[in-house]
Queue: 2 jobs
Job 1
Amino acid sequence: MTTPIDATATPAWAALSARAAGFAPDLRGWFRDEPDRVGRLSFELADLHVDLSKNLVDADILGDLLALARDVQLADRIAAMFRGDHLNTSEDRAVLHTALRRPAGAAPALVVDGQDVDADVHAVLDAMAVFADRVRAGQWLGITGKRVRTVVNIGIGGSDLGPAMISAALEPFATGIEARFVSNIDPFDLAHKTKDLDPETTLFVVASKTFTTLETLTNARLARDWLWAGLTASGAIGDDDAQRQDAVAHHFVAVSTALDKVAAFGIDPANAFGFWDWVGGRYSVDSAIGLSLMVELGPEAFRELLAGMHAVDVHFGAEPFERNVPVLMGLLNVWYTNFLGAQSHAVLPYAQQLSRFAAYLQQLTMESNGKRVRWDGTPVTSDTGEIFWGEPGTNGQHAFYQLIHQGTRLIPADFIAFANPAYALEDGGRDVHGLFLANFLAQTKALAFGKTAEEVEAEGTTGALVAARTFPGNRPTTSIFAPALTPRVLGELIALYEQITFTQGTVWGINSFDQWGVELGKQLALQIAPALEGDAAALEAQDASTRALLDYYRTHRA
């Protein structure tokens, strides 16, 4: 295991610290004095146009950030990831989500730990495509001979957030089959998602690598009970084990490598699609975890999603850092987090289809970089991670933009928009999408340049209202534009944020690919559950607060 480079001990970190002391950003002045600023800080990344010009950096700061990337040997770390080195040190695993989108026949072939990774990946992709085509063509039938109308994905974390986000984002590309997603162990989730479905036309995809995930397997059993109850009530099956198991085989498939457990559940192991331990859950949507998406959208759209991801991977691995968009955006996040005191980061898509994008990024970024130890187990030497959050515009404008514009906290924000809408509508002959994007452009302008007291007074405002209507500006934003929200473009956006996350993790010297922080709560839940069911010893073993809360639950539970 290599020892992480302590970024805080590098010359570049010292230079950035010196620049941050007394730093007084002046976007108005920079735009006035640097006529080439927009051209110099705008970049093309596949189909994405990325404008970094409204960020709080000048040429000197940017130069020091690039020096920091060199000081921590980011280029070597990127190469090691693509090569299949075991960067996930705590689990001794390669980090190869990028291999999931390598095109067939890519050269040289990727062989890691003696395994032909390319062959393995495309064997699963091809099997997924064959299955998806069967379902979409009406060749995969339920137990009563009816074709599938709805696919319900049962998973949690990376087995849910990515597929659910992509399904919503690419809804205009769905044809014929609806996808729904169940994740929460709250019984409402499954009950709500199935209440209007026909068991005879519903297919469940149970996504759990080990087929032991508590929430997923609980929901899978509940879904199986729902299927049996519905088919029995309609007379489609009798109340005997053989017909019940036949129903499961027709209405359940799995994304798992635990074939023995899959078979014990009643799913034919031939209908289980596997993935590998070098795929972390939050990086797995382009693996077999995306099976429900391939059924909903079709294999061609899914492969376009992968192609967009791969385009960003190529850029990240080959482009000089001065023009490398994920590297630049990751370094900007380090600047704001470690030198300017920002604690959160807003992602504001001007596309309702991306309503789940911020939630997806929360797991990607916060589970990856919310760490207090470095990859060798030593304590971190700086703050790590940011709180990612957001909401589609213009909804967010009427909720929390007040804080971003005039609050006391620095909140860097990424604005995402598309030149062409999924549905082009007019209001009295006026293009509604154009009005929508006028808001996108206006917000980044207002955040950058603000409004001075003199400008407010020139409009006739006087007294205390002048201060209330003054906008300080110098609120940093990045603008990301694309022609339209297509499968390829969405893939580019996903991979962009994956590689931003990698860049930051490298600077901080942390392992961005484990998640031990989620384990303790799960262990304690298993210890507390018996107390909920009346186990006196389990109740007595709890702390005073937990006991009191358990008493409240048991008193009020009907």
Note: The CA atoms of residues 257 and 274 lie 5 Å apart.
Job 2
Amino acid sequence: MLGHGDGYEAGGSASFVGRTRELARIERALREDRLITLTGSGGVGKTRLARRAADLAAGTGAGAADPAEPPSEPPSEPPAEQAGTTRPVGPFPDGVHWADLSPLPDERLLVATVADALDLADHTARTPAAAVRQWIGERRLLLVLDCCEHLVAAVRDLVRELLDAAPHLVLLLTSRQPLGLEGERVLDIGPLPYAADPFGPEEALALFTRRAAAAAPGQAPPWTEARLAAARSVCARLEGVPLALELAAAQLTDHTIEELAVRLARRIGPLSAPVPGRPPRHRALRTAIGWSHEWCAPRERLLWLRLSVFGGAFDLAAARAVCSAAPLTAADVPPLLDTLVAKSVVRRGADGSYRMLDTIREYGAMWRDEAGEREALRDAHAAYFTELVHAAERDWLGSAQRTGYRRVEAAHGDLCAALDHHLATAAPERALDLAARAGFYWACCGHLHAARGYLERALAAARPEEVAPRVRARALWALGVTLLLQGEQEQAHRIAVGCEALAAGLDEGPDGNGGPALDAAYLLGLSHLLAGRPLAARIVSDNALEAHPGTPFDSGPRIRCHLVRVFALTGTGLFTDAREEAELLRAGCEERGEHWTRAYADYQLALICLFEDRPAESAVHARAMLESKRELGDSFGTALGLDLLAAARAATGDGAGAARAYGTGHAYWQAVGHPQRGTPELASVREEFERTARGELGDQAYEEAFREGLRHGHALRTRPHPYERS
């Protein structure tokens, strides 16, 4: 559940050093208070400390912090709390959830980011804030909001609402300033104690020692007295600020510790010389960052400022595409990026992605703006992520579909930034095209509120004469799909009818595949299916497929239209025809490595097998559907599949297994914000086989098995196989 930002905090994957007193204070606050804010200046280690506390609260901390002992010469007195004494805090039976707010440019995606942290893929038309409030409800969980300082007003309002609505919620925040709410416990996080502090352990020295040994193994302890004194001088001049110490340690590839101490003395001056009006730690951090900037070669500095366009994590392909304008070539970027990693300017995550800490990114952005590259970089950033969605769409019918889904999901924040850029720069057609293409993926991945919001904004901003009719038709289609999944059936049906009329006035287009007409037929047919009109859905899909002949795998719109036809055949009781067509679709998908259509073909085959009294075969198809939905990360589809698996188990006489599967499915239905949904025929199947399972077990045993499955579902929602033990 601790998701965002893993591996990027100061020190990366290195062991956590010191902070035993602070961890004890946080542990006590988490027991006694509901709102705790860790404050302190940039670079002081708030995020890393919060993550350590959250790991311990979740019971996943690998022991307490390492003892903060300097090399060769332990402190005269041990720390107040020895390593291993910090106990896991809680209880938080409903988990510990992490929301990284640092990539957000403003408050518009704040609630959506919190929903993502909670793994809530809301499929309703209510506001995102209402969905989050209702989902938390009576749950006992810890929610960590990291890097709140640039969104203090919006975070304050959200926190107030959540605390009022959720009586057992505990919030842990990191920010450079407190929220100022009643009941907020503010814990000011200072720098690490260093040699000049006679009352604490030399934690700064311990951190510097670890990072120095990693950067320059030849300078690892044991140290001479002179080198130990030089290391203490470095820690003192940098006032124990963790980020400043890490940046300094990275320079030991080119300097000895003694040389580093001399250079710092020249740069900062006497230890007792404060800067009026500015806390010493600000001076130390700015000195360390500025020094690192000077240490970089000109081309490294240029890449640093260009990388500041990324608000969150990025990969090498994105860095090459966005940052390789003259004088940098695409071939220049990888070695320069490796150098910035070695100098602790950029962090490399465990998954191979990269990220800059906020303070360092802000410094790069300052130079970026002074260099006049801001708009050019935003253009390049938007162009790259627009092409990413185009590529995912081109590969939708093949084995790269899963990769496309995951790339679009991972790039959610960057796609929002690209859309904001297009809308801000009066590029309505670009905004509408990107919103339309990303919108379908977002609808499938659970980002329905974002899809609807951007589609409605882009459609409102784009006058009809400013955009191509084909682009407008595609955007309306994506909005209709989104509204259907949110349960807004009447509004979606009106849009579907409008799409059908708009498509009738368009030519075939350059590909000649009838895409707009088939898209419209899919939306209109799906609207009929969800309203219980399968015959109307069949007529719509048959008419469109007859007017635009071809094979199912010619295009995405065509295969989706064939899928509506299969659903309609099942809904009208033509099981033999439905099974034959579903098996053909499934075989074609399996051959190509496609997952989305295959999942729904298996869904139909599982349903048909139930209707034809073949429950064991139904269970096979339900499991296959769940596997495909797992590949795509689709909570809504997973909930549907678990209901079918439960029905199949009940039909084979496994009442306990059915109850557990229904319970696990209920956890997924809760995550999408709906009671059980789907086409109408599924409702009768669910009711029948729930009665069957309950009748076999009795009410008490059924409820116990259901609750076991529900607990299992909550635990599995972030694991790969949601049905493994259901």
Note: The first strand starts at residue 35 and ends at 39.
